[in-house]
């Protein structure tokens, strides 16, 4: 399909739902969790485990499960492999996205597992880049929509999770609509990805913002949901730690070892997401030109 690049304004990162943990001190970059829902895997070090904030429910192929040794998905699997190189253990802490962000910023936990690399995040996080993320739109098959460009969004309602990095972009699309004399886009902001999908299925919204990889898996399990061809907000994403923590560079080094020895490509291939691969991990890399959409 032919790709067109058009300027669009977009912003910061995003996703999902609920869980809770308490904490105790950590020797590096934050403090460790002490909770019935947190479980430790990887590595054999006697150092305190690193606490990793996960999504509060499965979000395949990025994350399958929420905690414990059985948590998988390409991002947890890459973290486990890196932790072995670093000889560190990991404790998985499921939280809603907004709480996870503020908790890692405050040093309560060590690692936020889903961070987009951009100027806003770099103010409070150091990011070890790990993959290229893209977002798209999902509609009900019964609606027979075929969204290929932002102008087709005018007058429609779009649902997304609070804190989503794409929010400013949706607002910019809406502003472009009204500037050209068309109806504005109605944004419906919800607490979780599951709640947004429910809103789509109930007819409350016309479209749901979704990570493109997640949308592809979603369609396989539920053919009533159809990803649209328009995608937007390509971004270098990875794991985030509190600004100034030495953990970020340690993970960059470990990720690059995984890339060099082939483990990185093997894990991505296992989840059929080789298209998100980067050639190297970097610390706070320059953001991609996220002011684009394509179809």
Short description:
The protein is 27% helix and 26% strand.
Written description of the protein model:
The chain is α/β, with parallel strands linked by helices and 295 residues long. It has two domains: 22-133 and 235-278, 3-Layer(aba) Sandwich (D-Maltodextrin-Binding Protein, domain 2); 134-233, 3-Layer(aba) Sandwich (D-Maltodextrin-Binding Protein, domain 2). It has eight helices and twelve strands. The strands form two sheets. Strands 3, 4, 5, 6, 7, 8, 9, 10, 11 and 12 form a ten-stranded mixed β-sheet that branches. A two-stranded antiparallel sheet has the order 1-2. Strand 4 (50-54), helix 1 and strand 5 (90-94) form a beta-alpha-beta unit. The radius of gyration is 19 Å and the shape is globular. The termini are close together. The relative contact order is 0.22.
Give a topology summary.
Layout: E1 22-25, E2 31-34, E3 39-41, E4 50-54, H1 74-86, E5 90-94, H2 97-105, E6 111-116, H3 119-122, E7 125-140, E8 157-161, H4 167-179, E9 186-190, H5 193-201, E10 207-211, H6 212-221, E11 225-242, H7 247-261, H8 263-270, E12 293-294
Parallel strand pairs: 4-5, 4-6, 8-9, 8-10
Antiparallel strand pairs: 1-2, 3-5, 6-11, 7-10, 7-11, 11-12
Helix pairs in contact: 1-7, 1-8
